Amino acid sequence: MPCTPVVHGISPSQPEQRNTRRSETVEPESPLTRRRVLLATWGTTGDIAPYTGLATGLKDAGHDVTVVTSNRYADAFRQHGLGVHAMPLDQYEAAIGQLPTRRARTNNAREMATVAARCLLEAASEGTDFLLAHPLLHPQAALIGRGLGVPCIGTYTVSHAMMLPRLLAGNPRHRYRLADSVVRMILSPIYKPGAAHLRRELGLTPSAVEDLTLPTSRHSVRYGFGAPLLPRRLRFPASHQVVGAWRPRRAIDWQPDARLQEFLESGPAPVYFGFGSMRGINHDHLAHAITGVVQRLGIRAVVQGGWAELQSHGDDVLNIRDCPHDWLFPRIRAAVHHAGAGTTHACLQAATPALPIPVAMDQPFWASRLHALGLTPTVIPHQQLTGANLTLALEQLLTDDRYRLRTDRISRALRQQDGTAAILEEVARPLGSAHLTG
């Protein structure tokens, strides 16, 4: 299945013509050398948003940036003048959450991973100096980096181990690598067909053991989240570093909806309710709970529909579509959200108190961290949400000033880390640095 590149270069079926292997003689390079950077990212809207900030930061610094992402998100990067190599994943993305069996879901994921592998190789073959990869695309990118002799760094907004928050609880120092390895092994079958294709195209020796764990703790990874949120005893592998969040970049021509501005200006600051790209939640039950808590606490609410198309009703409720969190969150009183990494960081950077209602994946981890740091009175898993416990918890959050004060302190600490600047430093280093090899 073909990709949609910015320019048509060398076909992956012609490896002998690729501008791939670097000469044995490496010329001295200025730290300001302009790089051709290939940034690969895919996932939900929350996955994509931080990479708009990272990609535009690299472009603004003078690098030539091409983004590999799905058709669904191509415009989020093109509107900033970035080159995009679009992956034709539309039919597979549409099937997510719709397939009835585990085998069908696995096959769908394998197809996506294989299409991504082909598209990544095609884009990289057109010429690149540096690969940066979202965790879902890091296995393919790491193989391509090795085959082409190009540095590769995993750029993650979540670690694999965070998908198993219960295993990390209590003693994360000794359990982190175990949790990390377990998740990688669970995911590894998804990547086998794509890895086999890349090995054939790149002339790499087959390795069943390596494919089972690739990429491992020896690969370079930079985490785009805030170190102040992590447990003190959590220890990452030496080649993994926490650099700070990558802040999403708004669309150039974005303007707030007039209805939203009027609502915000017409009364006290509202409470935000939103669950991002989560599917499979009972939106009718959730909407009823929101309507009830608005009435019981006498508050106003902004409800963001997201993928679940959540809507609530009432004179003091405004339903909205997409809205940049960096603009909205400083204007609200508190946020009730799913505790995705992007929403959690946006909330904290705005110093907005939050009540987490995690749904899946890494959300229970971030929710537990908000609670452990004293930033929220409790965590309510979405399966356990009722009108009563939502009312009680939100009332505590709104009336106890300690949550706002602690949130403000954490916000100031998070702003000390500049995740984009850290990646710029990595990209500016001389090519061939051993610690940069994927």
Automatic annotation (TrEMBL):
What organism does the record attribute this protein to?
Streptomyces noboritoensis
**Superkingdom field:** Bacteria
Fetch the Pfam families from UniProt.
EryCIII-like_C, Glyco_trans_4_4
Q: Where is this region: Disordered?
A: 1-32
* Domain Erythromycin biosynthesis protein CIII-like C-terminal per the UniProt entry, residue ranges: 316-411
Q: What is this protein called?
A: Nucleotide disphospho-sugar-binding domain-containing protein
List residues of the Glycosyltransferase subfamily 4-like N-terminal domain: 53-179
UniProt key word Transferase = yes
InterPro entries, per database record: EryCIII-like_C, Glyco_trans_4-like_N, Glycosyltransferase_28, UDP_glucos_trans
Question: Keywords for this entry?
Answer: Glycosyltransferase, Transferase
Residues that span the membrane, as ranges: none
Question: Among its keywords, does the record have Membrane?
Answer: no
